[in-house]
Amino acid sequence: MEIPEPQLPLTGGCLCGGVRWAVHEPLESCWYCHCTRCQRRTGTASSVGARIKPGSMEITSGAELVREWAPPDGHVKCFCAECGGQLWSRDPVDPETRSIRLGTFDGDPGIRPSGHQFTDFAPAWEPLPEDGLPRWGGRAPAGAGPSR
What we know:
Elements: E1 10-13, E2 20-23, E3 29-33, H1 36-42, E4 47-51, E5 57-61, E6 66-69, E7 76-80, E8 86-90, E9 98-101, E10 116-117
Parallel strand pairs: 3-10
Antiparallel strand pairs: 1-2, 2-5, 3-4, 4-9, 6-7, 7-8, 8-9
């Protein structure tokens, strides 16, 4: 399947439209995450996010609506205070390192998931798909590859 080259900037936002953002560089990678934290945060069996090039994202409106939850042992989860829409996660040490939830993009972001991480935590009620993508019981290894 050929993936269309995205028009930059990529744009997106939350459910209510209060928070809007733009990404000015192509996305670096994309993964399904099956960890329990993603399940509880989204109410689904997995979450899919795309890693951005650090510093390539700007919040174009609604920065005052962005709230954060910082777990003691993971990335900071960012969401809209008005609608509760999950937006992105960020590295607690380097705030410019972010992974944006794929469902928040306005159009086709020009990237596809290239693997499944934390599959040891996948729920029994939603079997992992037989999609041929690599799987890791924990975090995907660094440099496992882009998904363009």
